[in-house]
Design brief:
The structure is a homodimer of 214-residue chains. In chain A, the strands form three sheets. Chain A has a seven-stranded antiparallel β-sheet with strand order 4-3-7-10-11-6-5. A three-stranded antiparallel β-sheet of chain A has the order 2-12-13, with no helix packed on it. The first copy, chain A, has a two-stranded antiparallel sheet with strand order 8-9. By secondary structure, the first copy, chain A, is mostly beta strands. Chain A is 14% helix and 37% strand. In chain A, strand 8 (117-118) and strand 9 form a beta hairpin. Chain A starts with a strand and ends in a 17-residue tail after the last strand. Chains A and B meet through strand 1, helix 1, strand 2, strand 5 and strand 6 of A and strand 1, helix 1, strand 2, strand 5 and strand 6 of B. Strand 13 (188-197) of chain A pairs antiparallel with strand 13 of chain B, so a sheet runs across the interface.
Chain lengths: 214, 214
């Protein structure tokens, strides 16, 4: 393939947004579940900006754009301090994408898309029953990023639900085996095929493939 | 699949790190290229923490852990204010992973792994010639995150190089067609298979599959 310079600075706004959103690479595909006590409503929002921030404490970051359809998500996370993150799989891909429509506050995306809220003792935000990997988080930090008016939400994991058959003996979770998908750009959903699991790299030593033991 | 609660709080440190790293979902697989004028060396580091932050200005975030093997990367980004991000593909997967070994400063990961530095006029940091999607960035913000001593690096895109045959008419870049991979956890590399490209979601309207036009 011939590699060319692409003058994104000259693209129209919508085209540019499509383009730039693809450049960081593949992204996680998650549904963020929230609950508002004030309005007594649940909210569900597909999000591709969730990222790993640290293992101890177990932290995750989430970027929320200003004026986006995620505005209820941000509002309810700040109100209750709790939210869930649920992996998207192929069976719920269309429903997950549909949560990005701009529903009014009183219409829960759970009802509108046909996904099932699932509650766990000790956590007020709803999990997604159709999701195989479900995380409960509590808000730890809210950092507005002045550079472009996005909001960085940092949460700490309090609960994890996953299929035990996907948990390797060394602690690694085989999320492909659990059916999790990834996203690229604004609207592409992809399944994955693992090519290799590679050993811890050291200078002057050949990498080896790691065989999973479940 | 039966979904179980997993008591990650009771895992040993290494097992827990393996586990928590898998939970955010699939991650981008990139090589970060840097150059130090002070030491006159290049550096290359595989990184799965690169994420989209905004389209206008075109911003990307990068999380660097303290005391990680990426320490030269952070040092040189702060010194020169410039770096590159290069997508990992299957042909360079092993070499990319090998850059995570702890090489001394004077041994460039380019030489040690056999990847080829490629320079573009107007940018001091090296690109990876074997990569199909290559981005040039300049440092815009450096935010140490007090919560866990990681560092958030925010960069603005100044240059993009990609195969024109992967650029859709609406601006979207088909990164799967370009051969880009994704990562899960600390050491799993995956290729992708696109399931669908879905239309912009609106309430009370059915989603449609978008056909790409190249």
């Amino acid at each position: 393939m011939k590699i060319s310079s692409i003058a994104f600075q000259e693209m129209a706004q919508r085209e540019r947004a499509c383009f730039i959103n693809c450049l960081s690479g593949f992204k996680s595909a998650n549904l963020v579940g929230t609950y508002s006590q004030k309005w007594d409503v649940t909210n569900l929002s597909v999000i591709s900006s969730c990222f790993h921030l640290g293992a101890d404490p177990a932290l995750m970051g989430l970027i929320i754009r200003p004026h986006s359809t995620d505005r209820h998500t941000l509002e309810y996370i700040l109100e209750t301090g709790e939210y869930t993150i649920n992996h998207v799989n192929q069976a719920i891909m269309h429903k997950a994408h549909q949560t990005s429509a701009r529903y009014p506050r009183e219409q829960s995306e759970f009802e509108q898309t046909g996904l099932t809220p699932h509650f766990e003792a000790g956590h007020r935000a709803p999990f997604v029953q159709e999701s195989s990997i479900r995380l409960g988080l509590k808000l730890r930090e809210h950092l507005p990023l002045k550079i472009n008016q996005t909001e960085l939400i940092i949460g700490e994991l309090t609960m994890v639900f996953a299929p035990l058959e996907c948990l390797s003996k060394d602690g690694s979770l085989h999320i492909e085996k659990a059916g999790s998908l990834c996203v690229s750009g604004l609207d592409r959903y992809h399944q994955t095929k693992q090519l290799a699991r590679l050993s811890y790299a050291k200078p002057d030593r050949e990498l080896e493939d790691i065989e999973d033991q479940f």
